[in-house]
Amino acid sequence: MPRYRFGDFTLSPRRRLLSCGGEERPLIPRYFDLLVFLVERRHEAVHRRDIFDRVWNDVIVSDSALSQAIRTIRRTLGDDPREPRFIRTVSRHGYRFVFPEVVQEEDDSASPPTLSPPESPAAAAGPADPFEPLLRRVTDVARTVDEEEEQREAAELLHALGTVEALRRLDRLPRHAFARALLRDTRWDVAGAGAVPILGEPAPVAVAQALVGLRLRRAGRIAAARWAGASIGGGLAGAVAGTLGGLILSAAPGSAAPVDVAAVLAVIGGACGAVGGAGVGAGLAAAEAIARSQRTLSLVAGGALGGGIAGAVAQLLGRWSLEALVGLHVPIGGALEGFVIGAAAGLAYGVATSRAEGGVAAPRGRRRWGVALLVAVACGAAALGLAVAARPLVGGTLHLIAQASQGAQVTLAPIAALMGEPDFGPATRALIGTGEGAIFGLGLALGLTRRP
């Protein structure tokens, strides 16, 4: 693995080190990978799509994340975007490393001789107090996208000057809650940035609200696409489960259900799966877009909340429809079941994608199927626990409705007979519930991780 020398800088991919005059210039891992990629392909303009595929190949990020990465690298190199020495923006295409004299050599343990490091931009400017203009910028109201990016750059520079001192001074300024949230959000993109706590600090609720707003604005479109994918995945999974259940029911000995029942159950299963996928998927997508620390815990909470809300809505609508239309009073569940399934999906998804940093997880190939299978196992296990506690999912609820109706043909007693039970007993309930949960989890995870 070679190392590269350009100007006063030495870039060592093997040691993952960027230095200038023997002094390390730290970059977070993805930004370091981006710089290496641009230097390796310095003879061509690199398309943004290729950068995303190489540097953010396991996550999905917004275009602004790439712009921020380039801005940080330029600042580290002392580059001016208006007259670039190192990285030039290629309009409507991407970026190119343009420094003409790059020396590629073997990377041994000894560092090559270099000139003295250039004076940093902050030192060259030489303000009496470098914090003040940056603090004013992060506490101003940004009215345009460019002003928002300038605010983020100011927050990054404050981290470079000293996170602790910046936070100490913020407490005396207006809009300090927003500025603290901005510092919290940008600390992940500055190597060596200090911690920005929320709890136990001034205005924790306002800071949390501002932080959520910041992250949702930057990842809103991605979160919406994830939510839609999860809803579609859940709906398709429900339709598949309903079709399989209907075919098995119609083929079971002693069953009076026609083959057409498979289409009916597919529609019912698809609708229930889509509602459940929308609820759980919305919770997971929002949690993943918002949370950078305590990610798995946030995913569990988001999945449980989204599933619980979707289940409660389905429960109320189901009971109201049955009572108003046909006068049936059936103890339909929903809220607890959605809460448990959502929490299980969030836990499995968080564990399976624990290495995803800097965006929302988007594993590919076998890794994607591995994530989906783990979520399927977790949802199946949660559904099994609900079945043991006599809390049926869609199939068990349809059986209860059929029992309470006269002349219904979708009772699951014939399937119970295949299991050796005289009626819809615990073994049948466990098998059907586990299958429903597993198929739902598989479809949910595949829809959620679909890469646009």
User: How confident is the prediction overall: mean pLDDT?
Assistant: 86
CA gyration radius, whole angstroms? 28 Å
Helix content: 55-70%
The total of beta strands comes to 10
Order of helical and strand elements: EEEEHEHEHEEEHHHHHHHHEHHHH
Please report the distance between the alpha carbons of the first and last residues. 33 Å
Quick synopsis:
Helices cover 61% and strands 8% of the residues. It has helices at 29-40, 48-55, 63-77, 121-125, 131-139, 145-170, 176-186, 204-251, 261-290, 295-325, 335-352, 365-388, 394-404, 413-418, 426-448; strands at residues 2-6, 9-12, 17-20, 23-24, 46-47, 59-60, 87-90, 94-97, 102-106, 360-361.
Structure write-up:
With 452 residues, the chain is of the alpha+beta class. The chain folds into three domains: 2-106, Winged helix-like DNA-binding domain superfamily/Winged helix DNA-binding domain (Arc Repressor Mutant, subunit A); 124-202, no CATH class; 218-448, no CATH class. It contains 15 helices and ten strands. The longest helix is centred in the middle third of the chain and has 48 residues, at 204-251. Mean pLDDT is 86; it is low at 114-118 and 120-125.
Which helices and strands occur, and which strands form pairs?
Elements: E1 2-6, E2 9-12, E3 17-20, E4 23-24, H1 29-40, E5 46-47, H2 48-55, E6 59-60, H3 63-77, E7 87-90, E8 94-97, E9 102-106, H4 121-125, H5 131-139, H6 145-170, H7 176-186, H8 204-251, H9 261-290, H10 295-325, H11 335-352, E10 360-361, H12 365-388, H13 394-404, H14 413-418, H15 426-448
Antiparallel strand pairs: 1-2, 1-9, 2-3, 3-4, 5-8, 6-10, 7-8
